[in-house]
Amino acid sequence: MFIKKSAISMLFAAASLCTSGSQSAAETESVPGTTFTTLHSFTGADGDLSFAGLVQGKNGRLYGTTYYGGANNDGEVFQITTAGKLKPLHSFCSTGDCADGEYSYAVLVQGADGNFYGTTYLGGSNDDGTVFKMSPKGALTTLHSFGGTDGSQPLAGLAEGSDGDFYGTTNLGGSHNAGTVFKITPSGEFTTLHSFCSKAACADGQSSYAGLILATDGNLYGTTLAGGSHGRGTVFKITKSGAFSTLYSFCSQSGCADGEFPQIGLVQASNGNLYGATLEGGAYGSGIVFELTLSGVLTTVYSICSQNGCPDGNYLYAPLTQAQDGNLYGIMQIGGANNGGTIFKITLSGTLTTLYSFCSQPACADGQYPAAGLVQTTNGNLYGTTADGGGHGNGTVFSIAP
């Protein structure tokens, strides 16, 4: 599943060309009281095509990855201040045969030891992807190279457990080449916890694109893009010791009103329930935002593209974030006023407000096609990335003050 920019263009072929706006400054106000700022436009040399969200380190700076760009055009790990000063930290494929990995989709996580942990989609000793550890200054260590039977081509980042170990998923590989759930220690000791498609007709799910979350009950929760009772994806629970159960199979309702194909991960809100989204299904066929109790009861909170022309956005690819105000914030990859994607706010009860439509500036200088979730930092603002647009057409880093 190697992604080239031509494939990205085809993926967004449904999105029309951006319309030039009248605003040229870096800051743009969309909804009154909401200020959008483009902090950095990737040049290619410092990164290109960021699919991953950002994480705020203990030093206050933000850290992220890009799929392309860097010294070898195989992806980059970077650091950026909340004021927009970017510093490349590591260019992937810097060692022979890309033993340090290449092409990262994954958001980083900072461990209790202060190091950052993440995954690469390809590279490593078997070219099936890696798990790596990186110091805040950029010293990278490959902890594990996937080899197929233990998983292959991880798309998601890691979750740190209460035991100090890290947990993640792979898209492919495992006993049935349908992906795995794994555990890895900070020193690199690796354990496969579950191989998907281990039940008849892949009733336990197939191909996990999204990462795991550690819920308040101490268990890990995630989604699979396919499989389940109806072949349209699942939400699952797994304990840190590997006991696996399917919580919900999508398309259980007539016409897939409950959604199908969940590609994004989950967030546990302050009410204890899980929130996520699907790519398709729902009242308008463009997916839903859902709420799921830890016992597996699903409620459709919002059906995406509920307005003609999708001014509320379309293609919810990135996970949601609950901000300090209690609302959920997210991005739509396409749709909005200019078909370049949106930033939105949605209440836990399902009232959605579009805060910003990308490509509102000439030549999409503010970015377009965001593909990563948002992070709220200690200053209260939300930060994210776009996969395209910006001053050089390689994507951007932005902030929005809600």
Task: Give the integer mean of the pLDDT values.
Answer: 92
Low-confidence stretches: 1-29
Give me the side-by-side strand order of the main sheet. 1-2-29-28-27
Query: What does the main sheet amount to?
Result: 5 strands, antiparallel
Query: How much of the residues is beta strand, in percent?
Result: 25-35%
Query: Care to count the β-strands?
Result: 29
Structural class: mainly beta
Order of helices and strands: HEEEEEEEEEEEEEEEEEEEEEEEEEEEEE
- In whole angstroms, the N-to-C terminal distance is 36 Å
Could you tell me the radius of gyration in angstroms?
19 Å
Helix content: under 10%
Shape designation: globular
The helix tally amounts to 1
Structural write-up:
It is a single chain. This protein is mainly β. The chain has one helix at 5-11, and strands at residues 27-29, 35-41, 55-56, 62-66, 76-80, 86-91, 109-110, 116-120, 130-134, 140-145, 159-160, 166-169, 180-184, 190-195, 213-214, 220-224, 234-238, 244-249, 267-268, 274-277, 288-292, 298-303, 321-322, 328-332, 342-346, 352-357, 375-376, 382-386, 396-401. The strands form 7 sheets. It has a 5-stranded antiparallel sheet with strand order 1-2-29-28-27, with no helix packed on it. 55% of the residues are buried.
